[in-house]
Amino acid sequence: MNKDELRLKYKALREELPSEAIDNLSLDIANQALQLPIWDKTNYHLFLSIQNKKEIDTEYLLQILAGKDKNVILSKSDFKEGTLAHYLLTDNTTIKVNSYGIPEPVDGIQVSEKQLDVVFIPLLAYDKQGNRIGYGKGFYDRFLAECKPDVIKVGLSFFPPEERISDVRDGDIPLDYCITPTEVFKF
Fold first, then answer.
1. Residue 51 has what DSSP assignment?
2. Residue 3 counted as an annotated binding residue
3. pLDDT tens-digit profile of 166-177?
4. Strand pairing class (71-78; 43-45)
5. Residues 78-101: tens digit of each pLDDT
6. What is the pTM of this model?
7. Is 96 known as a binding-site position?
């Protein structure tokens, strides 16, 4: 299947999930994350969930990161430029939901992409080769291209991988891992 077909399929599958299931599956994903060999790192980029798109609730991952005393970095979107700016999450960080429903930091201590060790990545679908599909705006591909070459890219999904995404492009950056509620896939 191609990206457009997969976007439709997985938006529909997520839409069918009841809120209670999202909560339980998100907790399972956070627990699966503990198996990854990433916990010796310092700077972890995390996305905050878009509630109305039924994304994985990353609050559980946030609690794990805080419990392990890790630096958590959040993004703020610039839809005009198609870019992300990154800010250290602190006790003083104000989070505001933007007009697209994305919770973001208002401002704070800016962090360069080159400082990130691990990036947790939102996605709609992915395949057995680690290729991922987001919402189609390219924010994460542009962002990941600016990260250091050895940054660990971790997708989060309620669902298992597709066999193959048929229209992968050169600029698409694959995942290193994808965490589901029952399994961790390594690419």
1. G
2. yes
3. 999 888 999 999
4. parallel
5. 999 989 999 999 999 999 999 989
6. 0.95
7. no
